[in-house]
């Protein structure tokens, strides 16, 4: 059965939401970061990158990277309409998704959350974190404009919204930063979806 390797309070919750949206049976394999399980030889055999999310598919093959997993799930479950079918729609969803994963998560949040990954010098920690926070809040301002007058990033609900949801969750619930109004409204809209509620409950996210 399809198995999601996830860790609590990480980006893998966005993939978890997608599996709930699809509604087919799946298994969960928790990777406990507090015990460093992502770096164990057993887990690295499955995902040499030592990261979540990783999706083990029915044939045993493993897919990694948010955009790849999300796109594959959407395209193999076309009835769920998680990705438009026209070239412009596909491109716009991937554009929004890449901005969230590449810029908001990897270039901004990681700087705030893991300054030690960029400098071993404790004196630089605060400056690195400030840059990460500023960059993340600036990215949310751009997304806020994109969301003006809209419920979702591109047309109907899509894989891009699940990525936006996980960074909203981090910024709002973990960092306690205020979100701009349209982003906050999107976050509330996401939290009202049964798929989001189910994945939060299964992962024990308050
Ligand atoms: N580019 C990857 C990023 C995956 C990633 O960075 N995952 C984090 C959790 S949000 C992780 O597994 N970190 C492992 C660690 O911190 O040791 C993706 O799109 O899936």
Biggest sheet character? 4 strands, mixed
Examine the secondary-structure arrangement and name the CATH architecture of the largest domain: Up-down Bundle
Per the CATH scheme, the topology name of the largest domain is Glutathione S-transferase Yfyf (Class Pi), Chain A, domain 2
What is the level 1 CATH name of the largest domain? Mainly Alpha
Supply the number of structural domains. Answer: 2
Overall pLDDT score: 97
What's the tally of helices? 8
Helix and strand pattern: EHEHEEHHHHHH
What is the number of strand segments? 4
Can you give a write-up of this model?
The protein is α+β, with helices and mostly antiparallel strands and 206 residues long. It has two domains: 3-80 and 197-203, Glutaredoxin; 87-193, Glutathione S-transferase Yfyf (Class Pi), Chain A, domain 2, CATH 1.20.1050.10. 56% of the residues lie in helices and 7% in strands. The protein has a four-stranded mixed β-sheet, covered by helices on one side. β3 (54-56) and β4 form a beta hairpin. α4 runs parallel beside α6 (159-174) and α6 crosses α7 (181-191). It is globular. The model has no long low-confidence stretch (mean pLDDT 97). Bound molecules: glutathione (GSH). Glutathione (GSH) is lined by residues 10-11, 38, 50-53, 65-66, 101.
């Amino acid at each position: 059965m399809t198995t999601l390797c996830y860790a609590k309070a990480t980006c893998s919750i966005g993939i978890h939401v997608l599996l709930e949206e699809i509604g087919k049976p799946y298994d969960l394999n928790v990777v406990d970061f507090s015990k460093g399980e992502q770096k164990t030889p057993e887990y690295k055999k499955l995902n040499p990158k030592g990261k979540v999310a990783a999706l083990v598919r029915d044939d045993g093959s493993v897919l990694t990277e948010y955009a790849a997993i999300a796109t594959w799930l959407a395209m193999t479950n076309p009835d769920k309409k998680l990705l438009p079918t026209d070239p412009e729609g596909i491109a716009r969803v991937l554009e929004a998704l890449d901005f969230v994963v590449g810029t908001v998560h990897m270039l901004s949040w990681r700087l705030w959350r893991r300054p030690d990954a960029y400098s071993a010098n404790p004196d630089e920690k605060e400056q690195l974190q400030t840059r990460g926070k500023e960059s993340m809040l600036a990215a949310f301002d751009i997304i806020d404009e994109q969301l003006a007058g809209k419920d979702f990033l591109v047309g109907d609900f899509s894989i891009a919204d699940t990525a936006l949801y996980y960074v909203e969750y981090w910024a709002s619930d973990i960092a306690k930063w205020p979100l701009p109004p349209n982003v906050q409204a999107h976050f509330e809209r996401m939290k009202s979806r049964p798929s989001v509620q189910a994945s939060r409950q299964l992962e024990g996210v308050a």
